[in-house]
Amino acid sequence: MQLLAAVGWDGNDQMYPIAYAVVEAETKEAWIWFLRLLFGDIGSPNHHKWCFISDQQKGLLPAFKEVAPTVEHRFCVRHLHSNFSKLHKGKQLKDAMWDAAKATTVVDWKREMQKIKDIDKAAYTYLMALQPNWWTRSAFSTFCKCDALLNNMCESFNGYILEAREKPIIKMLEMVREALMMRMQEKREFIKNVKGPICPNIQSKLEKLKIKCRKCLPTWCGQRIYEVKCFPDKFIVDLDARSCSCRKWDLTGIPCIHAISGICHANEKLEDYVNEVYTVETYKRTYEHMIHPVASEKFWPDTGRPVVHPPSQRRPTGRPKKLRRREPDEPRDSYRVSKKRVQMRCSKCHQYGHNRTSCKGQVAAKKGKGMGNAPAKKKGQAVEGGKNKGGLH
């Protein structure tokens, strides 16, 4: 069985669970069923603008084509690169692909793609076959105020419910509901202590951008338009349109360094130019809805309907997966010591190349520093190096 989930970003740039469901398998039919229920709750894509980012799960892309063919759909660049690197390896290509994905303008994207073409024409052809709005910021729409390239929020949700996923269905769903119920209340209490109009994580980003904007030189052109020099380039900032030619402000709703330099030149508040999705008031409205408590099973009313039996168990081979599968070229945890290229030594015969379990040799004599037993201490005596150094009375 599989747990399907839809997760979003809240105004503080953190995880906001929207919907989840248990299905027999991750198939096109299961995703179609899930998406139809989801759009029934959040609103039809024909009347609302929605943007989705996914890991190319099984059956999800054809499900979107059937249920919501016009919705904007992005792919996690880390997973795209994983497939890309199977055919086109090398750090140089990896860095060039990520630079192309991070490019916010078509001009910058074309420049990075030309670099890829110069390195490997086959790699260039592979990437050009992908729709640009799937993976590069230069082709992202600006309505959703999100420029995310990674699907980290779903990974955060998976880690959040890791313990619950091992339980039977009803127990699992109850544990997830309780965890989300407490999370919603914690967020409501958290925002009460926030001072200022902007959510803390966004305010922190603004402070960092303020420092970076010192290298920008704004020139007032008239009305509320500025030409901003940021060596070696120049950008056009329109404060009324809340737009910059670098497109970072347009994509995120957070003023870029060029816009900040213009806003500071006009002696206006930065917070007034941050999109309303990041305000404390919007955050409060996001979490004002409560997940209601549920009494124990003995208090549940009898529906009079047929008993729902669990689906047939489909146990795959191998140990059940708990953590996300890491790609071969993905950085490992820097705090864990790698065993790569470490020669194994047997603790029984002291020979290299195997361990105690598979050892067929003889027990080695205990000798050398650290191999013998420490001499026993007699009561009232101090021992050093196996010799009595004096009595304690």
UniProtKB/TrEMBL annotation:
<feature type="region of interest" description="Disordered">
    <location>
        <begin position="354"/>
        <end position="393"/>
    </location>
</feature>
<dbReference type="Pfam" id="PF10551">
    <property type="entry name" value="MULE"/>
</dbReference>
<dbReference type="InterPro" id="IPR006564">
    <property type="entry name" value="Znf_PMZ"/>
</dbReference>
<dbReference type="GO" id="GO:0008270">
    <property type="term" value="F:zinc ion binding"/>
</dbReference>
<feature type="compositionally biased region" description="Basic residues">
    <location>
        <begin position="316"/>
        <end position="325"/>
    </location>
</feature>
<feature type="compositionally biased region" description="Basic and acidic residues">
    <location>
        <begin position="326"/>
        <end position="336"/>
    </location>
</feature>
<feature type="domain" description="SWIM-type">
    <location>
        <begin position="235"/>
        <end position="267"/>
    </location>
</feature>
<feature type="region of interest" description="Disordered">
    <location>
        <begin position="300"/>
        <end position="341"/>
    </location>
</feature>
<protein>
    <recommendedName>
        <fullName>SWIM-type domain-containing protein</fullName>
    </recommendedName>
</protein>
<keyword id="KW-0479">Metal-binding</keyword>
<dbReference type="Pfam" id="PF04434">
    <property type="entry name" value="SWIM"/>
</dbReference>
<keyword id="KW-0862">Zinc</keyword>
<dbReference type="InterPro" id="IPR018289">
    <property type="entry name" value="MULE_transposase_dom"/>
</dbReference>
<dbReference type="InterPro" id="IPR007527">
    <property type="entry name" value="Znf_SWIM"/>
</dbReference>
<keyword id="KW-0863">Zinc-finger</keyword>
